[in-house]
Design goal:
- The chain has 695 residues and is α+β, with helices and mostly antiparallel strands.
- Helices cover 39% and strands 14% of the residues.
- The N terminus and C terminus are likely disordered.
C-alpha cells in the first residue's frame, strides 16, 4: 500500500489529470454517452418489444440482397425475373417460347416493364400468391434444373415497384382459347407477406372469352398480344435505362444466345424494336425430378427427414427418401451404422441419427442420376454463337455430368474467335445516345465500361486513332469529335489489346454482375491460355478477339447471394470448368497454329516467286538449257515445298484435300471464311445460314 502511494505521489500533475479525464470518459460511456445515467429496463419490458419479422419486411429493408440496389440494376432485375418465369413456364408446358418485352417511360426516372409470354397461363387462385407472396413457388422443393429456384424474384420486383412508385403489379393470364382471362392488380402486404388485390373489390376481374382482351386493357395502358394462352405482367418502378454493359439490351442479347429455341421481341423506352428469332424448332429435353442424394444431406436435415417420413422402417426410409439407395445399399448403410432395418425412423434418437449420417457419408453409393439436367448441347451452342457473335472459328464442348455436395451439375463452354464484337460496329446515332446516357467522367472510362472486350490498351488505341484525349468528357464532345470516335471504333484492330469477353450463364440465365466474385471468372483467369495462342498476364483475363460462353447447369446452383449473380467456388465445379476450358483451348490452339503455318508458307512462296525468274535465267546462261523449262521445274518445286499454303478447310476444320499434318479437331467445330461473301456472322444479320450437321 505504501509503495503504491509513493508511486502515485511521484506522478506528474499532467499524468494525474489525464487519468482523471479517462475515468470520466469511461463513466460517461457507461451512463449512455451523454453524461446521463442509463435507465434500467426489465426483461418483461424488453420482451414486449419483440415481434416477428416477415420475409417480405426483411427484404423490403434489404432489397440490395435481391439485386435492387440501384435504379439501373433494378430495371434489369425486374425484366430478368419476368423473362425467366416466362421461359420456365413455356418449357414446362411443352410450348416453344415466344416472349414480348416492352419498357415504357412513365415519368422522370420511372418506367413500366411489361413482359408477356405464350405459356400455359396461371389458374386464378394461384395468381395472387405467385405475384404477391415471397418464397412461394413450386421450384424450391424439387431437385431438377430450372431458372427460378427460390420463389422470390417476380414478387420481389413487384414489391420494389410498390415501394418506389406506390403502383400495384398488373397481371393478365389466360389458360385457354375458350376460357376467360383473369386481370389482377396486386400489391404485397410486407408486414404479413400476403397479397392484397386492389381491383374488382378484392377479387380481380374476369374478361369473358368472347371479349377482346386488347380493348379491355387499353384504358390501363397494357398492350396484349393476341395468343390463345399466356401471361402478361406489368410493373411500374423507379429505374434508370442505360445501354451498354449490364443493361436490359445485353441481358436479352445473351439470353437469345443460350436459348436458341426462344423468340424474343423487344421494344426499348425510345420505341425502337428488335427481334431475336429462334434458330431451333425443338424444346430442350425436359429434366426429371430426382430425390436428394445421400452425399448431399446434412445432419440437421437428416433429423428433420426422419421425423417427417411416412415410412415405417429405416430401410424403407432410406430407399424412399434418397436416390441411388437400393434395398441392398440400405442394408449395408444400416449395418455400418449398427441400426436395425426394421426400426421406426420417427423414434431414432440423436446418437443413432448421427451414426446413420456417418454411415451415409462413408458407404460407397452410385452418383445421382443426370436426367434431371437439360444442357444446351454443343450443336445449339454453336448455332447461338454463330448467329449473334461475329467470328471466324467456333467450337463448343459439353462436359460429362459431375457432382458437388450430392447435387449433379454439368459444365458447357463455347468459344468464338476472330472479328471485333458487334458492339464496336455502332452507328453514329447509337454512339451519340451512349455518350449522352453514360455517367463516365472520361472517354477512356466510357470505352472500357460501355463496350465488352475493350481494355485500357484498346481504349488508348481507339482514342489515338480518333485524335482525342483520354481525359475528355464524353458529354462535351463536339459533332466532329463524335464522328472521329465512331470511325475509330469501326476501323481500329483490337486483336492485341482486346480482352476476352466472358458470357456467364447459370441454368441458361445470363449472369451480368459480380463477375470477379464468380467461380467462372476466377477459373478463367487461373487457367493458362498462353499455350493456346493467347497472350495473358498473371491472374488476369487473356487478350485476344475471343468470346467465351460458359454455362453451368445444376438442380441447385450455389449462388453466393440471393441476387443470383455469382457462383460459389466449389473445388468440384472449378475442376470441371478448367477441364472444359482446356478442351476448347486445345482446339483454338490447333486452329491458330494451322492458320499460322498457312500464312508462313504463303509468305515463303511469295519470296520464291519473286526470284525464280532470275534464278531460271542464270541457270539457263550457265548450263545452256531452256529458260522456260527451268522456270516450270522450279515452280513445281516451290509449290511442293510450300504445299500448306494451298490447304483449304471446310467449316468443320477438316482439310478439303489430303493434309500433310496429322492434326484433326476432336469435337464440334465451325470455321467461317471471312473473305467469302455472306460468311461473316453479325448480330444484325438474322438470315445467316446455320450448319445443322456436326461430327
Amino acid at each position: 500500500m505504501g509503495v503504491s502511494t509513493a508511486k502515485q505521489d511521484q506522478q506528474s500533475p499532467q499524468t494525474i489529470e489525464k487519468s482523471r479525464q479517462a475515468g470520466q470518459s469511461e463513466a460517461s460511456s457507461a451512463a449512455g454517452g451523454n453524461g446521463q445515467p442509463r435507465r434500467r429496463v426489465s426483461a418483461e419490458s424488453l420482451a414486449a418489444k419483440q415481434r416477428e419479422i416477415s420475409v417480405s419486411e426483411f427484404f423490403a429493408k434489404n432489397r440490395h440482397l435481391l439485386g435492387f440496389d440501384n435504379p439501373r440494376k433494378a430495371l434489369l432485375t425486374a425484366v430478368k425475373e419476368a423473362v425467366d418465369n416466362a421461359l420456365d413456364a413455356c418449357e414446362e408446358a411443352g410450348v416453344l417460347p415466344e416472349v414480348w418485352v416492352r419498357i415504357d417511360p412513365t415519368g422522370e426516372s420511372r418506367y413500366r416493364v411489361i413482359v408477356q409470354d405464350n405459356g400455359p397461363g396461371i389458374v386464378k387462385k394461384q395468381i395472387p400468391l405467385i405475384f404477391g407472396k415471397l418464397l412461394y413457388g413450386s421450384k424450391f422443393h424439387r431437385l431438377r434444373q430450372s431458372r427460378g429456384q427460390q420463389g422470390i424474384g417476380i414478387s420481389a420486383a413487384g414489391m420494389y415497384g410498390l415501394l418506389t412508385t406506390g403502383k400495384p403489379v398488373s397481371i393478365v393470364s389466360k389458360t385457354g382459347p375458350r376460357k376467360p382471362a383473369h386481370f389482377y392488380q396486386i400489391q404485397i402486404d410486407t408486414k404479413n407477406n400476403r397479397p392484397e388485390i386492389v381491383n374488382g373489390k378484392g377479387d380481380g376481374v374476369d374478361i369473358p372469352a368472347n371479349e377482346n382482351i386488347g380493348e379491355f386493357l387499353q384504358p390501363f395502358g397494357l398492350p396484349w398480344n393476341d395468343v390463345e394462352h399466356g401471361t402478361l405482367v406489368a410493373i411500374e418502378l423507379e429505374a434508370k435505362y442505360q445501354r451498354g454493359r449490364g443493361s436490359v439490351d445485353e441481358y436479352l442479347f445473351q439470353t437469345a444466345i443460350a436459348n436458341p429455341h426462344v423468340t424474343l421481341h423487344y421494344q426499348d423506352p425510345e420505341g425502337k424494336t428488335r427481334d431475336f428469332p429462334r434458330v431451333a424448332e425443338q424444346l430442350p429435353p425436359e429434366p426429371k425430378e430426382i430425390k436428394p442424394h445421400p452425399y448431399g444431406v446434412e445432419l440437421g436435415w437428416l433429423v428433420t427427414m426422419l421425423k417427417d417420413t411416412k415410412a415405417n422402417t429405416l430401410s424403407g426410409f432410406l430407399t424412399e427418401s434418397f436416390s441411388r439407395v437400393s434395398p441392398a445399399v440400405a442394408q449395408k448403410i444400416l449395418e455400418t451404422a449398427g441400426l436395425s432395418s426394421r426400426a421406426n425412423p420417427r423414434r431414432v434418437g440423436r446418437h443413432e441419427a448421427e451414426a446413420l449420417f456417418q454411415a451415409l457419408q462413408t458407404t460407397k453409393i452410385q452418383s445421382p442420376a443426370t436426367d434431371c439436367l437439360s444442357p444446351i448441347g454443343e450443336e445449339l451452342i454453336l448455332r447461338g454463337l454463330r448467329q449473334l457473335v461475329p467470328g471466324e472459328f467456333y467450337t463448343a464442348v459439353t462436359r460429362p455430368p459431375a457432382v458437388y455436395r450430392g447435387n449433379p451439375f454439368q459444365v458447357e463452354v463455347g468459344l468464338a474467335y476472330g472479328g471485333a464484337p458487334a458492339t464496336y460496329r455502332v452507328s453514329l446515332e447509337t454512339l451519340e445516345e451512349l455518350l449522352a446516357e453514360t455517367d463516365a467522367r472520361t472517354l477512356r472510362q466510357f470505352l472500357t465500361t460501355t463496350f465488352d472486350g475493350i481494355g485500357p490498351e484498346g481504349a488508348d488505341k481507339i482514342l489515338q486513332q480518333a485524335r482525342l484525349k483520354a481525359r475528355m468528357s464524353p458529354a462535351k464532345l463536339k459533332a466532329r469529335e463524335r464522328q472521329q470516335l465512331c470511325e475509330a471504333l469501326q476501323s481500329v484492330n483490337l486483336t492485341e489489346g482486346q480482352t476476352m469477353t466472358v458470357l456467364r450463364y447459370a441454368n441458361r440465365v445470363p449472369l451480368l454482375f459480380q463477375a470477379g466474385a464468380c467461380a467462372i471468372t476466377q477459373t478463367v483467369m487461373s487457367t493458362n491460355w498462353r499455350p493456346y495462342g493467347l497472350s495473358q498476364s498473371r491472374n488476369s483475363l487473356p487478350s485476344g478477339p475471343v468470346t467465351l460462353l460458359v454455362h453451368f447447369a445444376s438442380v441447385w446452383v450455389p449462388f453466393t447471394s440471393e441476387s443470383k449473380e455469382a457462383i460459389a467456388a466449389y473445388p468440384e465445379i472449378q475442376k470441371e470448368l478448367r477441364l472444359a476450358f482446356q478442351a476448347v483451348g486445345r482446339r483454338l490452339g490447333m486452329y491458330l497454329r494451322r492458320r499460322l503455318r498457312v500464312r508462313q508458307q504463303g509468305e515463303r512462296r511469295n519470296i520464291f516467286l519473286r526470284y525464280l525468274k532470275e534464278v531460271a535465267s542464270a541457270v539457263s546462261i550457265m548450263r545452256g538449257v531452256d529458260r522456260d523449262e527451268v522456270y516450270r521445274d522450279l515452280m513445281e518445286v516451290a509449290k511442293r515445298v510450300t504445299a500448306e499454303a494451298d490447304i483449304k478447310l471446310d467449316e468443320h476444320g477438316r482439310p478439303l484435300r489430303d493434309d500433310p499434318t496429322p492434326e484433326e479437331f476432336d469435337g464440334a467445330v465451325i470455321i467461317v471464311n471471312p473473305e467469302s461473301e455472306g460468311q461473316v456472322a453479325t448480330a444484325a444479320k438474322k438470315d445467316f445460314p446455320v450448319q445443322l450437321k456436326m461430327f
